[in-house]
Structures are given as structure tokens and as C-alpha cells.
Amino acid sequence: MQNQSINPQDRLCFAPLIIPLAIGFGEATLKSRNVCYQLYHHSFKADPILKFAAMQVAEATANVFFNISQPVALELKEITGKEYRYFGMCHLHEEQHHQINTPNIVSLFQQIELSEEQRQQAVVVVESIFAAYTEAMNSFMDFANQQNPTLQTKILAESVT
């Protein structure tokens, strides 16, 4: 998404994959659905600490995604005159101002001591969900390359020069 030599619309062409219901339950949305399954699997009836770990993975991933997609959304807005709220500043602002990020809540969570078993379980939760997000993001790139086959050639050519 950060390669500004590529049209911003092409850099966000994977958008339908983010919400599987937008284009159905086919192969293209398998990886983004897996993120939902992993979040559910590691949160449903889980220890509240593990639910918190799962939520923090989602928050951290969202912060990275929105910090990268927001400049692309602004570029696209300049071209089209349309607001891209999901990718733009509005969503990024909302992500950064959740109650969970207030100093008193952060301090409360920092004071919690985990047992060794909880720590090990939390590591499994975090690694599993980050792996699912990584696979989903890679599938977005694969989708973008399939939509615009010259995109991959352009990226490769720029990486060699």
C-alpha cells in the first residue's frame, strides 16, 4: 500500500476481502474469515486475560493497517473527491481513542500478574491470531496482484532498480 507509484485505487482493490459478506464465502475470503474464526476460537468462553490478549492483537493489527491505509485513502480522495471512511482518518481516530487506551485502564492491565499457564496460553493466542492476520494480509496482496497482473511486474521492477 505504501508504493505511491501505484494508483491508490489499485492499492485498495482488496477492500471487498476485508468483509467476507461483501463478496460471499468463496476462496478469496477464506483467509479473512479465518481471522474471525481465530478471534472467536480464542475468545469464546475463554479466561478474560486471553480475551484481552486476542483483543489487543486485533487492536495492534488495526493500528498498523489504518496508519498505512490512511495516506492511500487521502490520495484517493484527492482523485475522486470521495471520502473513504473505513481506510481514512475517521476510522484511525476511532481506533486510537478507544476507552481501553486511557491511562487508567492501561495502568490497570499493567498491574495484572499472569500465572505461567496463563502466559503460555496468551502466547499461543497472540501467535495464532497474528498468523491469521498475516495470512489474510498476504491474501489481500495476492488478490490485488490477480486484479492487476502488471502490478506485480511493476513492484518487482522497482525493487531491483
Query: What's the overall geometry?
Result: globular
DSSP strand tally: 0
Poorly predicted segments: none
Gyration radius, in Å: 18 Å
- The residue fraction in helices comes out at over 70%
Beta-strand proportion: under 5%
Multimeric organization: single chain
Q: How many helical elements?
A: 9
Distance from first to last alpha carbon: 19 Å
- Listing every helix as H and every strand as E from the N terminus to the C terminus, the arrangement reads HHHHHHHHH
Count the domains.
1
Mean pLDDT, as a whole number?
82
Tell me the major beta sheet.
none
**Which class do the helix and strand fractions yield?**
mainly alpha
Overall description:
The chain is mainly α and 161 residues long. It has one domain (8-160). The chain is 74% helix and 0% strand. It has helices at residues 8-11, 15-18, 20-23, 30-43, 48-80, 89-96, 103-110, 116-147, 149-160. Helix 4 (30-43) packs antiparallel against helix 8 and helix 8 (116-147) crosses helix 9 (149-160).
List keywords for this structure.
single chain; 161 residues; mainly alpha; 0% strand
Q: Would you spell out the secondary-structure blueprint of this structure?
A:
Elements: H1 8-11, H2 15-18, H3 20-23, H4 30-43, H5 48-80, H6 89-96, H7 103-110, H8 116-147, H9 149-160
Question: Summed up, what is this model?
Answer:
The protein has one domain (8-160).
